Amino acid sequence: MVKSFMPKTLAEALKICDEHDVCPIAGGTDLMVRNHQSAGILPTFTKDMLFIKNIDELTVLEKKDMHLIIGANITLNRLLNWENTPQILHLALQEMAAPAIRNMGTIAGNICNASPAGDTLPPLYALDAIVCLKSIAGERELPIREFILGPGKTALKENELLTAIKIPIGDNNINFYKKAAMRKAAAISKVSIAMTAKKEKDKIVNIAIAIGAVGPTVVRLAEAEDMFIKNNENTGKVLPDIYDVYDRQIKPIDDIRSTAKYRKQVAMNLLHYVYEKCIK
Amino acid sequence: MLYSDIGKPIKKVDNDIKLSGKAKYAADYNISEMLYARTVRSSCSRGRIKSIKIPALPEEYFVITAADVPGKNRIKFLTDDWPFLAEDKINYYGEAILLLVGADRALLKKLADEVKIVYEEIPAIFTIEEALNNVKKPIYGTDNKFADYKYEKGDVKTAFAKAATIVEEKYSTGYQKQAYLENQSMIAVPGKAGKITIYGSMQCPYYVKNALIQAIGIDSSKIQVVQTVTGGAFGGKEDYPSLLAGHAAFAALKTQKPVAIFYDREEDTAYTPRRHPAEIIFKTALDGENNILGVKADVKLDGGAYAGISEVVLQRSIYNICGVYSIANLQITGAVIATNTVPNGAFRGFGAPQSIFAIEMHMESLARKAGVSAIDYKMRYMAKQGDTTATDGVFYDEIKLPEMLAKVDQISDYSKKKKMYGEQPQFHKGIGISLFLHGCGFTGSGEQDIIKAKLKLCKKKNSQRVEIFAANVDMGQGLQTTFRKIAAKALAIPLENIDFPYPDTDKVPDSGPTVASRSIMIVGRLLQKAAEKLKQRWHEDNDIEIIQDYEAPARIKWDGGKSLGDAYPAYAWGVNVVETKVDPLTYEVTVTGIWTVFDVGQPIDERIIEGQIQGGVVQGLGYAGMEVMTNDSKGHSRQNNLTNYTIPTAMDFASIKNCLVESSYEDGPYGAKGAGELTLLGAAPAYAAAVGQAMRIHIDRLPITAEYILDEVIKHG
Amino acid sequence: MADISFILNGKNVTIDADATKRLLDVLREDMGFTGPKEGCGEGECGACSVLMDHELVSSCLVPVGNAAGHEIITIEGFSEEKRYEKLANAFAEAGAVQCGFCTPGMILAAEALLNKIPHPTEMQIRQAISGNLCRCTGYNMIIEAIQMAADTGDGLW
């Protein structure tokens, strides 16, 4: 049987992290699923568990300087109902899981779970989200794309906690989110795309596109985005090259939920749609 | 409350206990000293058990193997080939080998993980094709066929000789899991003098009882089976509870303690029966004007590793292969094929959904070839009263399809939309229609030769209360209410004065299983007759007991050996229209409209029938589009939970607009026919026709996933 | 093992349990409630739904440690309320109950919705119960029931 730590403060929690090999648990909607057993049997956690849900310092939700700060305990539902949530993230949250899960699950958990199909990840990549990591030794920040290393793998060190997510406040005025899945609610994504862009005087001056579930991590190709912005006077000319960049770098797989062929085709269809229709 | 109009909805009698959470499902029973059994299953798909090493068991922990089966280690079905617990032979991944029994479920899990079984593997067969190509050693008999049927009607030889063209098409359908919300659950309690009492979630208390009599080799009086509140079944609790009750009973006998087996979702999804995957081939002879001269059809069902009840499922598939159409010349073959996979079984529709999908899509295809609309082509062959059925029986009763088609067109605007969507391919919209029927009650002479249903009604002296004694269960479909309504109307007494406890085989006669859309039409009719007799004797000053036996309607003739005659006493009918829009970027289908018209005879309760329709149609739409179950390289299903095996949510489908046509069946209670299964049959073909129109493709398989649509779109350019 | 205290159906309770134990198991096995049911154990079906601080949660995914200091309401507690009566009558009237296994969870999902949005649209109802699977009804009669309760429940929510 594993030990459970239930600290009241972040300082206590960081100390526990430093002294023990623990697994932090917030809402539990991923961890309780992955380790579940049948009725009457405790979940099969292999590490001591660090309950962080009741740590107030992790429940911040604020606009500060040029960032939105989202504490590790902020639930998906709280974010869905926050007036400052970026629209592209809001679109993804609306379609994510179902109310009971959104009432417990956290965006921090979705990040640490590091599933290629994680629903909040494409918007967070597109928004250049930053994760704040704390340990007893200090704190550091990492862009989300450097934090997530692969399926289920992150750069979180054993003595660290992900305490918050920082999202730069932007003024993008076009957003598009699409998730292809087996059904219209409570579904895991087969492919998803999040696009956020800024249009100024009929020109796209800023664009970010992230595609989920088509590789080990979310695909966001700065090379393609830059080509588009640099040629924003005459994008028609560079579009074939842009698609070529995506075509070369999107390498999905077959799995229980879909096929590589489907994922690739749908990702390309959605990219065409985004570059040619959405931002017109 | 007295009923002049039996169809008028009333409040269901079990609403309050279910709403408040007080209803006790099997897993809610708290029996003192109860132990749990955990099943240890095969990790080999086919082979022989070379050795089993069981870890040292703590005191009061037990192991149950095939050697602990006191009687015959075979589940009682038509063919007794399925062992409760494997002896030495393994036929599918997940086959039950032994049970570990004890009080602590965590410890049982740990012990189960430590059981070491060594197998001698035999090359396994996973597909119908492999089973028939005779390369690997057969699983069953010499040809891998659990059942093999053939029947003919008319002169198919001449029809094909005269044909201008012969159209050959193949249709295939996949698994569907019942996915009742309450997993399979069973408790066995040992009593005095070797008696065993079973409490569990089930459709057929007497199937369970008879299975245990054979398995324990014990007198009938020693087995008592009591149904608990059942959280959905849909056929899934027709066959499998017999196996589960056996497991619980063997454990209870050995330990002399109550033993519970409650499957979790993964175990239930991975190892209990599903709808049979099917491969259906039509060869249709057409004349120069594309009129049908004759049809040859072949149905192959994947039966899984043991025969179970698959033969009866096949009968329904092949007898319904022509759908609502009366075809003069027919040659039908069918077989259930053995594969090294989980044995398949009953699921609402019972072999018919596969056939109805195939014939409806085949008719769509023939219509396209003939250059006429699907509905016009289908109307040419639609059966009328007096026409012959596929098995050369007679459609004795009026067939209201023309009225139903007019009605569905009126409420859905089908004809107009069909034309409009045809002219506007750029919108990717489509609308489809399906026509279908369902034979109510057991196939062939099952009722009079095998089931021989019996029902009892009792009134005690000086009491105004009447008790119904029947073995049919409420599994959500409302039988607790509808049976009481029938009795109350016939007796002209208030519903509150009717008792109908959950079936207990120590008290109720065998009125047959709760399957095949028979409970209302067949058993409800017995109830009505018994109640009418009781009413005649109401004044008597003594206890009154009425026993009502089943009598087959005089008009029914059936030759089982030749598969000829009246396969069913009556038919219920349906017409469905489904409208869809397909996203051209993701190939995802959105259902934008559903319209249905049904003829189920006189509804015993209109709201309960509405519930059957709403639920059945949505299950049918799940079958059509989203419920994917596939096997891995060991024949083990890859979708073993409700995350991966996706059933419809409240977000998935538009509301269903439904109408009933007025109709009455003379041999049903107050004119009622069967309704439960019918409602599932038409959704998939209507959905397929709609998606086909939206994307300009021909759908020939279920489920219609976005991946499949993409493949077809590429194929059709 | 640790003492974990929370409010259950209006009463303070303290249990000595492993903090990772599922709230569902605590409710069913330690407290003897039958309203919350296990349908999947993975938060996918909603049969185990309870209210935590008046929000819908899947009790199979709540380690009881996370319930510490919070308020839990099961159908047993909610059925004491007038709002339950309103919903129960509407469910009966609309024919929204078949096998009943999803029903307590559906009622609590409806309560959580109506608490926030007393007059929801059909789409808001569909979204609110989208994590509560029902295999019997096809949902439409449940949606109608919730609409009916909202229409006639003025002032209760």
TrEMBL record, chain A:
Annotated ranges, domain FAD-binding PCMH-type: 1-172
Keywords, sorted A to Z: Flavoprotein, Oxidoreductase
Pfam families in UniProt: CO_deh_flav_C (PF03450), FAD_binding_5 (PF00941)
InterPro entries noted in UniProt: CO_DH_flav_C, CO_DH_flav_C_dom_sf, Diverse_Substr_Oxidored, FAD-bd_PCMH, FAD-bd_PCMH-like_sf, FAD-bd_PCMH_sub1, FAD-bd_PCMH_sub2, Mopterin_DH_FAD-bd
Highest taxon of the lineage: Bacteria
Example of a GO MF term: oxidoreductase activity
PROSITE patterns membership: FAD_PCMH
Record-linked PANTHER family: XANTHINE DEHYDROGENASE FAD-BINDING SUBUNIT XDHB-RELATED (PTHR42659:SF9), XANTHINE DEHYDROGENASE SUBUNIT C-RELATED (PTHR42659)
Name under which the protein is recorded: CO/xanthine dehydrogenase FAD-binding subunit
Automatic annotation (TrEMBL), chain B:
Keyword Oxidoreductase (UniProt): yes
Domain of life: Bacteria
Gene Ontology terms, MF aspect: iron ion binding; oxidoreductase activity
Keywords: Molybdenum, Oxidoreductase
Matches recorded under InterPro entries: Ald_Oxase/Xan_DH_a/b, Ald_Oxase/Xan_DH_a/b_sf, Ald_Oxase/xanthine_DH-like, AldOxase/xan_DH_MoCoBD1, AldOxase/xan_DH_MoCoBD2, AldOxase/xan_DH_Mopterin-bd_sf
Residue stretches making up the Aldehyde oxidase/xanthine dehydrogenase a/b hammerhead domain: 20-123
Protein name, UniProt field: CO/xanthine dehydrogenase Mo-binding subunit
The organism of origin for this protein: Pectinatus brassicae
From TrEMBL, chain C:
Domain 2Fe-2S ferredoxin-type: 2-78
Signal peptide: none
Gene3D superfamilies tied to this protein: 3.10.20.30, [2Fe-2S]-binding domain
PANTHER family membership: OXIDOREDUCTASE WITH IRON-SULFUR SUBUNIT
Protein EC: 1.2.7.4
Keyword Oxidoreductase carried by entry: yes
Keywords in alphabetical order: 2Fe-2S, Iron, Iron-sulfur, Metal-binding, Oxidoreductase
Protein name in UniProt: Carbon-monoxide dehydrogenase small subunit
UniProt xrefs under SUPFAM superfamilies: 2Fe-2S ferredoxin-like, CO dehydrogenase ISP C-domain like
GO molecular function terms noted in the UniProt entry: 2 iron, 2 sulfur cluster binding; anaerobic carbon-monoxide dehydrogenase activity; metal ion binding
